[in-house]
Amino acid sequence: MPEPVTPPRRPDSGGAWLSRGLLSRLTILAPFLALLPLAAFGLMLVLALQAERESDRRADLERAATILAATMESELRGGIRVMEALAGSPRLATGDLAGFRAEAQRVMARDPAWFTIVLADGERQLMNLRYAAEAPLPPVRDLASVGSVLRSGRALTSGLLDGFVALRVPVRVDGAVRYALMVALDVSAYARVLNRATLPQGWSILLLDAEGELIARAASGTATVQDVRPALAQPREVRTLGSLRAYAAPVGDSRWTIVVAATPDDFVTRALGWLVLAAGAAAVLGGIGVAARIASRHRGQEAMRHRTQAEALARAAEHDRRRTDMLATVSHELRAPLTGLLGYTDLLAKTDLPPTAKAWVEQQRRAGQALLALIGDVLDFARLDEGAVELEDADIEIAQLLEDCAGLMRSVAQQKGLGLRVVIDPGLPRWMRGDPMRLRQITTNLISNAIKFTERGEIVVAARLTARPERMEVTVTDTGIGIAPEALPRIFDRFRQESADTARRFGGSGLGLAICRRLVEAMGGAIGAESRPGEGSRFIFWVPFRPGAAPLAPTRLSALRILVAEDVAASRLLLTAVLERAGHAVTAAEDGPAALAALHGAAFDLAVLDLHMPGLDGFGVAAALRTLPGEQGRVPLIALTAEQPEEVEAACRAAGFDAVLRKPFETRRLLGLIDGLRGRGTDAGPRTLSRQADAPEDRRGVRSAGND
Question: Please, which residues have CB within 8 angstroms of residue 120's CB and are 6 or more apart in sequence?
Answer without folding.
Answer: 126, 140, 146, 179, 180, 182
